[in-house]
Design a protein that fits this description.
heterodimer; A: 400 residues; Gyrase A, domain 2; 3 domains; six-stranded mixed sheet; six-stranded antiparallel β-barrel; 19 strands; globular; B: FAD/NAD(P)-binding domain
Chain lengths: 400, 529
């Protein structure tokens, strides 16, 4: 049975749909209200609050902390300053991605890592013989994601002293909430301006109350995983076990992916000090990757035509789908779309996809399988960047 | 009056492998007679009402290895087979705590995490690795063992195919497989886990039914053998057959009869009749004779070769090898009829944990000490016990509100050094109940009836030599092309028209049905010649 998260006392009464999902063993609301679009628009237009406590969290401390983290991550963490946050995948020795997450540098010798899967054993084993301590703090830290354009003014009401205006994208600051230390990171999984608040579990519920109260006049509502799924696809953010399979869970080698194959080639720093998977990735970089991660935009006119044939308008709006769909070109299978959604703000049907690299150029035409009234047909689609939506406030710094 | 009747084939022994074999032969159109010495079919796969109103899974008690192709091909679900899931395993610990592993992986994770965060993670990875291993060896379960000494093109091709199969394994899995083949189960598991009671519980799968301890090299393979049932495209935990394991035998018997097999019970075979090196039929103890072109024995190798035949008819090296085939049983069974539900001290009251297995395996040293006693000819005073409560899974096993409890106990050596089992049986039963009472305080007050079976009793009741539940040790020296003897691992014997199909042949014991099925194919190959 999934167990309640530290915020369950607050989320449970609000979740009138009683739609919950098991997220890493915790009950997580899928949608609080019957129409998840309301929650989606709150994040794009005002503010939304999400319980992200089920994330796995680790702290690495000690003289060799940087060495350890840098040996795990494909990005160069030496470049991460104190007070900065980085996003990076990590790989096995074969250069296949195990997981991805954020690295917050809390001090010279102090890092906090997030992960989608349990990784304590991996981090500890990588650090064998190093003077660094890896601790699982998953249950010692609750986390709230305050996301949306109004997240900043809401937060400023709560933390008057903190220099929130100056807080840059992927940076953090430390503050206090009712005398309890709190970390505020300018991060999120929505592709909008947003903050994540990390605090001791027993203080999480009062914090939730204060944020909701302060956000009242700013249009805040809680949002669930259904809205999150649309937001993250629009932002081109991939999801483990949906858009790629962890090399630890792959049942056959073909299910594993390198960072290059999931659009994270930019995060593989081959020139930095030795890290796990480096040699394999150097070889792959030289030889080229067989598959590439792309965005897809399904041709609306073609969708109109296919659905029109049975006298229907395109039936693609609603929740994001995680059921992979095959892609074709010249009559042969060339890849699959793994996450797809009708973007409410762009009014486009978009997807995150993995294709054979020869089909990965921008603008390339591919066929996307759609099921129209039980019949499988193919709609035209175009390869695009996976970042479909990026509002200016996502990274901007307020003036004054 | 002696009677003589002719069949295409006669199958000796109505255990699950004999039944499966007979069903496949009849399916191919042969007229088949199956002979069983007991009043009921099933062999070690039986449920019996030992105490009025209570059905005991007398010998074998869980199912998971039964080959899915047999379930499909013999249409066993239509014949009443239903395998119900066993939800979990709980290991009570001496301090009053427990390890619980259930169907929710996150719950299991949290439970193990209380003792070791590393082990909680390792447990998932271990499951994944064993899945890979089971996938790798699954192929072996479905083939006739090739003869590595033969230059016959058919054998060379089979060896080549086998080699290719293993070359498909990636490097890391190849190493894991090599370790499984050579290590002890405890040493293998300690490469993954640090919490000793977890290692102990998992390593128990490496000793069940064998005369090995958790520290004995070779026991890691047995671990894998017990994992192979968990592959079927999906992971499948151990299950409990509705009606007890007898339900499995009844379903196969029903399918076999529908296919035309004639089943005779109370029909103990004394000899296989031969003429000029060829089997011609069988002679029963009561003097009845039956003729057949093909005779298949599902009995263990010792009975198949040395009792049903005159050893003079066999090559002397084969006689030597079969007489030395390891069949000393190591496990006993205690079946209890209970007036109420047993109450675990570590987790009192009714709960889902009672619908799964309860494992008395508090430490590796505990099990190894239990083994030490057996090595020197005594039963374990503090044994390893694998318990299930069948009535919690299938309420028809006992009257409403009452329960049956099946306790598989190790170690109970067939040979006791200073006594015999007729003398020691109840002392052994007492040791089991006393051990259980440490974890189940109300146990002694609710026992209505107790059945204690030592390996010697198992041999007396159903004939298994040495009371060995696998018809012979699952040691590497007795597997694949060595099972039961080099040169005779392809279900044939030196006597033309005489075959073997029991667990003493490849791929070995457990309710798999695989030997029975594979042997049937060999019989049919020859019959068509």
């Amino acid at each position: 049975m999934p167990i309640p998260s530290p915020l369950h006392s607050r989320t449970a009464p609000l979740c009138i749909t009683q739609e919950w999902r098991d997220w890493s063993g915790y009950l997580a609301a899928i949608t609080y209200q019957p129409a998840h679009e309301v929650e989606y628009y709150a994040v794009r237009n005002a503010a939304g609050l999400l319980d992200v406590s089920p994330l796995y969290k680790y702290e690495v401390t000690g003289p060799d902390a940087l060495r350890l983290v840098n040996r795990v991550m494909t990005r160069d963490i030496a470049k991460c300053r104190v007070g900065q946050v980085m996003y990076s995948p990590w790989c096995d020795e074969d250069g296949k991605v195990i997981d991805d997450g954020t690295i917050a540098r809390l001090g010279e010798q102090h890092f906090r890592l997030t992960a989608a899967d349990p990784n304590l054993r991996w981090f500890q084993d990588v650090g064998y013989g190093m003077d660094a301590d890896v601790r699982d703090v998953s249950t010692q830290l609750a986390a709230l994601a305050l996301q949306g354009p109004n997240s900043l003014p809401i937060l400023k009401i709560l933390f008057k002293e903190a220099k929130l205006d100056a807080l840059k994208y992927y940076y953090l600051l430390q503050s206090e909430f009712n005398g309890t230390p709190i970390t505020i990171t300018r991060t999120g999984y929505t592709g909008d301006r947003g903050y994540e608040l990390w605090i001791a579990p027993d203080k999480a519920a009062p914090l939730w109350d204060r944020v909701m109260e302060a956000g009242k006049s700013y249009g805040i509502i809680p949002f669930g995983l259904a809205a999150l799924d649309i937001l993250r696809v629009e932002a081109g953010l991939l999801l483990i076990e949906v858009d790629y399979t962890s090399s630890q869970h792959a049942k056959i080698p073909a299910q594993k992916s390198s960072p290059y194959e999931i659009g994270l080639g930019w995060a593989a720093d081959l020139s930095k000090d030795e890290f796990i998977g480096q040699r394999a990735l150097q070889a792959e970089k030289k030889a080229g990757s067989p598959r590439s991660f792309v965005g897809l935009e399904v041709d609306w006119k073609d969708l109109d035509r296919l659905y029109g044939a049975v006298n229907l308008p395109p039936q693609v709006a609603g929740r994001a789908s995680r059921i992979a769909v095959p892609l074709y070109a010249n009559g042969k299978h060339v890849g699959q779309a793994t996450s797809m959604v009708f973007s409410p703000i762009l009014k486009k049907y978009v997807a995150l996809a993995t294709v054979e690299s020869s089909y990965a150029q921008m603008g390339k035409e591919i066929e996307f399988e759609v099921t129209v009234e039980y019949v499988r047909v193919r709609a035209k689609a175009k390869v695009t960047k996976s970042l479909f939506y990026e509002p200016p406030q996502k990274k901007s710094v307020a003036r004054g | 009056m002696a009677e003589t009747k002719r069949y295409d084939a006669i199958v000796i022994g109505g255990g699950h492998n004999g039944l499966v074999n007979a069903a496949y032969l009849a399916k191919a159109g042969l007229s088949v007679l199956l002979l069983e010495q007991r009043p009921m079919v099933g062999g070690a796969t039986v449920s019996e009402e030992i105490y009025p109103g209570f059905k005991f899974t007398v010998f074998s008690y869980v199912v998971s290895l039964l080959r899915p192709e047999i379930i499909r091909e013999l249409e066993l679900p239509r014949h009443g087979l239903a395998i119900l899931p066993l939800e979990s395993t709980i290991t009570p610990l001496p301090g009053g705590d427990y390890i619980y592993r259930g169907t929710d992986p996150h719950e299991t994770f949290r439970n193990i995490q209380r003792f070791s965060p590393r082990d909680a993670e390792a447990y998932r990875e271990y499951g994944h690795a064993m899945y890979q291993m089971a996938k790798a060896v699954k192929y072996i379960l479905s083939i006739r063992p090739p003869d590595p000494t033969s230059l016959h093109p058919r054998e060379l091709m089979a060896l080549l195919k086998l080699g290719k199969h293993f070359l498909n394994l990636d490097e890391q899995h190849m190493y894991t497989l090599a370790k499984l083949m050579t290590m002890s189960s405890a040493d293998f598991l300690e490469e993954w886990f640090e919490f000793d009671p977890l290692v102990a519980t998992l390593s128990a799968s490496g000793i069940i039914g064998t005369f090995l301890g958790p520290r004995s090299p070779g026991s890691a393979y047995v671990l894998l053998h017990h994992y192979m049932g968990e592959i079927d495209g999906v992971f499948r935990a151990w299950g409990f057959a509705k009606g007890g394991t007898g339900g499995v035998a009844e379903a196969i018997a029903s399918s076999a009869q529908e296919l035309g097999v004639e089943i005779r019970t109370n029909a103990k075979v004394a000899k296989v009749a031969t003429r000029n090196g060829r089997a011609t039929g069988v002679v029963l103890e009561n003097g009845d004779e039956f003729e057949a072109k093909q005779v298949v024995s599902s009995l263990d190798p010792k009975l198949t070769f040395l009792k049903l035949l005159d050893p003079k008819e066999l090559p002397s090296d084969l006689v030597g090898s079969i007489s030395k085939f390891e069949t000393q049983g190591s496990s006993g069974k205690v079946n209890l009829a209970l007036d109420a539900l047993p109450d675990l001290a570590c987790l009192p009251g009714e709960g889902v944990h009672l619908k799964g297995a309860i494992s008395i395996s508090p430490s590796v040293a505990y099990i190894e000490r239990a083994y030490d006693q057996a090595k020197y000819g005594q039963f374990s005073e503090k044994p390893y016990i694998d318990i299930i409560i069948p009535s919690m899974i299938d309420p028809q096993m006992a009257p409403p509100g009452k329960h049956v409890m099946s306790c598989f106990v190790q170690y109970a050596p067939y040979h006791l050094r200073e006594s015999d089992w007729e003398d020691q049986r109840e002392a052994f039963g007492d040791a089991v109940v006393n051990t259980l009472s440490e974890y189940i305080p109300n146990l002694k007050n609710i026992i209505l009836n107790r059945q204690v079976l030592s390996p010697w009793d198992i041999e007396q009741k159903i004939g298994l030599s040495g009371g060995n539940i696998f018809q012979g040790e699952l040691s590497l020296s007795q597997l694949f092309f060595l099972r039961p003897s080099p040169g005779y691992a392809q279900y044939r014997t030196p006597i033309r028209g005489y075959y073997q199909c029991g667990s003493g042949t490849h791929p070995g014991g457990g309710i798999t049905g695989a030997p029975g099925r594979l042997a049937a194919f060999e019989v049919l190959k020859d019959a068509r010649k």
